[in-house]
UniProtKB/TrEMBL annotation:
Species of origin: Leptolyngbya subtilissima DQ-A4
Keywords attached to this entry: Amino-acid biosynthesis, Glutamate biosynthesis, Oxidoreductase
Gene: gltD
Protein name: Glutamate synthase small subunit
Pathway: Amino-acid biosynthesis
Organism domain of life: Bacteria
PANTHER family: GLUTAMATE SYNTHASE [NADPH] SMALL CHAIN
Amino acid sequence: MGKPTGFMEYLREVAQEVAPADRIRNWDEFHLHMPEDSLRTQGARCMDCGTPFCHTGMTISGMASGCPVNNLIPEWNDLVYRGLWEEALERLHKTNNFPEFTGRVCPAPCEGSCVLGITNPPVTIKNIEYSIAEKGWESGWITPTPPQQRTDKKVAVIGSGPAGLAAAAQLNSAGHWVTVYERADRPGGLLMYGIPNMKLDKQQVVQRRLDVLEAEGVTFVCNTEVGKDISAENLLKEFDSVVLCTGSTKPRDLPIEGRELKGIHFAMEFLTANTRSLLDGYPGNDYISAAGKDVVIIGGGDTGTDCVGTSIRHGCNSVTQVEIMPQPPETRSAGNPWPEWPKVYKMDYGQEEAAAMFGDDPRAYLTTATKFEGDEQGNVKAVHTVQIQWGKDENGRFVPQNVPGTEKVVPAHLVLLAMGFLGPEQPLIDALGLEKDGRSNVKAEHEQYTTSIPGVFAAGDCRRGQSLVVWAINEGRGAARECDRYLMGTTELP
Ligand SMILES: Cc1cc2nc3c(=O)[nH]c(=O)nc-3n(C[C@H](O)[C@H](O)[C@H](O)COP(=O)(O)OP(=O)(O)OC[C@H]3O[C@@H](n4cnc5c(N)ncnc54)[C@H](O)[C@@H]3O)c2cc1C
Ligand code: SF4
């Protein structure tokens, strides 16, 4: 522990951001670097706890508490305080293949469970992680390290999101020949085509890591959907093992009156086409513009927030986010104690930008859409909404009940459905003949990752349902370990 009294002497500080009214003019990342002195001071706030809840990734009440990849947080906080950045990076890479991704996009369950957070604002763990990773890239400490010896084993990884990339990186480091199949035109999964550029830069951050993986010997085969362009059967014959990392990509629909109208899209159609247009330098046929439009986003979660930020950068006329749940409290409620993930009200980047543009948080809480209204040409022109309250039905289950007299008609030229995901797409899972769990995910135990077919492993959102980048990395690493054990009879992978 660098400074035993640091937590009493220093206040929490986080990195500055470009002001909302300025950053909406472009697609650049908006977090600014924190000066080195400030980072060292923040590292000094860590108490090096006997039981560092920050790094003990657990699931409590269905949510992550502590770091899911078990980052050695107190160790690198201390190293940063001492200015030993290269050693801090080495510690960070022991548990996390891609700290530059989590340092940017992770909601930081580590900070939610930080012991200092019981009485004070928690240590700024995420910002320190980001800074260690970026210092590593800037200083040239992150370079390709191909394995010194190769085995004769071939592994196919299906899907190139964070789970697939982590699995590929680990299996390649163990000397296996790894081919990653991806149906999109670029690898990265939701790192490339889900999370918008202003949160995670595609060329400078995602591609930078993909280049290293390729130079280490991982082969990427894009524009190739397994089960369609290559049969699942052939893949099983050709490779010694298969790791399935296909994500949870089936979006939840809203089958209310008017759903067939033009101008109503799933959030991912909007976000994917937008990022592709930025990368290609021109809008494709599937590009959906929000420019000059009244936009209504159904769903107040993170995907909805990304739609808000993207619509504002397009130059929308207005934006409303419809959220069926109540507004969370300003501070933890009695039923949500430390070290649980704090379910508290926060303005995320998209809401801050909407407030800067239009004067207010765009979220309408305890509200649901009842009908989409169209014009004579079949284009959506409004969303009918009503406020709800949560009551119990005859079986004691919570159900939304409309509040009479609260009906509204919200103008809408573009409606984006961001209500979560219902699990992985089924055709490939069925073609492989894999068992599923009750939620249509691939059936495999966490930490085992073995499916009902020997030699086929599953990791990430296709196994656990839509989750977080950090869980996907955790699972990809774990599946690689078990795959290596299957191939070699033993494993040294963590
Ligand atoms: C809009 C959005 C924003 C998000 N923002 C955040 C965030 O800020 N922070 C965070 O922690 N999490 C965020 N998440 C969640 C996070 O991105 C996911 O939990 C994570 O990417 C899951 O990783 P994965 O590797 O399991 O799957 P994915 O990233 O979904 O990757 C799966 C890949 O498999 C490919 N694939 C599917 N089927 C086939 C096939 N048959 N053949 C070949 N390829 C196939 C898909 O094309 C895709 O590229 C966000 C999710 C969304 C939708
Ligand atoms: S819980 Fe917080 S104070 Fe304790 S070791 Fe982790 S980061 Fe440091």
